[in-house]
UniProtKB/TrEMBL annotation:
Keywords: Metal-binding, Zinc, Zinc-finger
Recorded GO MF terms: zinc ion binding
RING-type domain boundaries: 16-57
Key word Acetylation present: no
Species of the source: Branchiostoma belcheri (Amphioxus)
A matching Pfam family: zf-B_box
Domain B box-type: 94-141, 155-198
InterPro entries recorded: TRIM45/56/19-like (IPR047153), Znf_B-box (IPR000315), Znf_C3HC4_RING-type (IPR018957), Znf_RING (IPR001841), Znf_RING/FYVE/PHD (IPR013083), Znf_RING_CS (IPR017907)
Protein name from the UniProt record: E3 ubiquitin-protein ligase TRIM56-like
Top-level taxon: Eukaryota
Length: 371
């Protein structure tokens, strides 16, 4: 049980794909991929106002006065990094853990789940004596290892981006976003906006998210099938190219030496045509692979958010994830039927050669020599 949380959350889920290290102040893009704030700053070129996701290539516009710092913080990932980081410290580095309170060399024996600090025995005594720490939950390292207190760590809670420091305890059904008290008065007034307490819509949002998990899974399956169809199309194109080259060789073999150059020219044109088709299919496959990456990561984020996120974390991410769902699950740009049509629209073997003048010449001269 002690390592259940660590096993459930993969290291990749908490790793920035730019620096390949554990997230530090993760920022979430419109495609719901997250990266360290500093990594994004280094990734962008000077003067750029749009972030092209390094994972799926989708664009995210930045606020003019905010830059990378103005992008949304991913508090869900940030809290997971803190929770799992503390668990790993307890499991693997107990003898080397410094006391977060006094910084001394005395062995750490407990952790305050309210302060998120590891404490030595002396600081535990102080923690339990001073009034300022009244109500703080202090547990031993052995109790922490059991997993009994998973989810009870004090989490960083997102605040309103419009009204500094205000916590978002309400949800505007009209706009589909969490809001603070000031927002209700200034930006989301009744009766134009249907604003309710966040606790009233928590289960409803989770239910909608669960339905989106199913939709994303179905879209992921369809995308994987489409990728397989593209692979088959590429193989078919290559087969057609080889067969066409074979037919050319058969004709050229009946001609005299000076006609072989004509035959080679014919093959080059066939190969160029097929390479162009193959290039188009590879481009389509790349687009589908990127879509698959977004589908997988969006589904993983959503499932993890459902199992580990708080209502405010779910509410904060809900609109953005739903937009991703709408974009990913209603993509009209490529279907298996379109790919298969592209594969079969040209006649195999001789049909691909009909538009090549060199081939017509070869046929004509072959007939002449036969006579």
């Amino acid at each position: 049980m002690a390592s259940a949380l660590i096993k459930e959350i993969s290291d990749d889920f908490l790793t920035c794909q730019i620096c390949l290290e554990t997230f530090r102040r993760p920022k979430i893009l419109d495609c719901v991929h997250s990266f360290c704030e500093e990594c994004l700053k280094e990734y962008l070129k000077e003067g750029e106002t749009v972030v092209k996701c390094p994972t799926c290539q989708r664009d995210t516009a930045m606020k003019q006065d905010g830059g990378v710092s103005g992008l949304k913080d991913n508090f869900f990932i940030l809290n997971l990094v803190e929770t799992i980081g503390a668990r790993k410290k307890v499991q693997h580095s107990v003898d080397r853990l410094p006391c977060d309170s006094c910084g001394g060399t005395e062995a750490v024996v407990s952790r305050c789940l309210t302060c998120n600090d590891f404490l030595c025995e002396s600081c535990v005594a102080i923690h339990r004596t001073l009034r300022v720490f009244k109500g703080h939950l202090v547990v031993t390292l052995d109790e922490l290892r059991t997993g009994k207190y998973d989810g009870q760590t004090e989490k960083i809670e997102p605040t309103c981006g419009t009204h500094a420091g205000e916590k978002m305890r309400f949800y505007c059904r009209t706009d589909g976003v969490p809001v603070c008290r000031d927002c209700i008065v200034l930006d989301h007034p009744k009766p134009e906006h249907n604003v309710v307490n966040l606790t009233e819509v928590g289960n409803e949002l989770r239910s909608s998210c669960q339905a989106m998990v199913t939709e994303l899974q179905q879209a992921l399956g369809s995308t994987e099938y489409a990728i397989q169809a593209v692979d088959k199309s590429i193989v078919d194109i290559q087969a057609r190219s080889e067969k066409a080259a074979q037919l050319v060789d058969e004709q050229v073999s009946h001609l005299v030496t000076f006609l072989k150059k004509l035959g080679e020219t014919c093959k080059e044109k066939v190969e160029a045509m097929c390479r162009q088709e193959e290039k188009q299919q590879y481009a389509e496959k790349e687009r589908l692979e990127l879509k698959k990456v977004r589908l997988s990561s969006t589904q993983e984020l959503l499932q993890t958010l459902l199992s580990r996120g708080t209502d405010i974390e779910v509410a904060t991410a809900f609109r953005q994830i739903r937009q991703c769902r709408d974009e990913l699950c209603t993509d009209p740009e490529s279907t298996v039927e379109q790919v298969l049509y592209t594969t079969s629209k040209k006649v195999v073997d001789r049909g691909i050669l009909q538009g090549i003048e060199e081939w017509k010449t070869l046929l004509a001269m072959s007939g002449t020599f036969s006579k």
